[in-house]
Amino acid sequence: xxxxxxxxxxxxxxxxxxxxxxxxxxxxxxxxxxxxxxxxxxxxxxxxxxxxxxxxxxxxxxxxxxxxxxxxxxxxxxxxxxxxxxxxxxxxxxxxxxxxxxxxxxxxxxxxxxxxxxxxxxxxxxxxxxxxxxxxxxxxxxxxxxxxxxxxxxxxxxxxxxxxxxxxxxx
Length: 171
Hints:
three-stranded mixed sheet, 6 helices, about 55% helix
């Protein structure tokens, strides 16, 4: 297979697993809100485009920018998840070679139509904990721990948010 085919498979792996990767990319409710606000250049759908700052995967001349991760994301987990998705797709097609170059000529690869992002972090956590690639590559123990940690964070966020709303009524 050519380098171009490998890049197509790699990008396809990212597009197909984005729903499950979002808890790694956006681990808090504050991070998540960024994805569902309008006019802020944050990606709002699962798609790739050339030279677009509004898409989740921005295809540039020699690289792919993954624009979903927030500044609160663990960069090591983000990189591992991206690599795992690409490798998973390459292995499905029996292609274990790696290339140092990226070609942006992806004309016959479907870059959109993968749907909207999940409505909330809880929904994305369900995709995360059921995704076979994530379970295999990260391990069930990690997936369970990470899911529990994110859910605990969400519970604390709800408590704080409710307290703030109550305080607003008194002010």
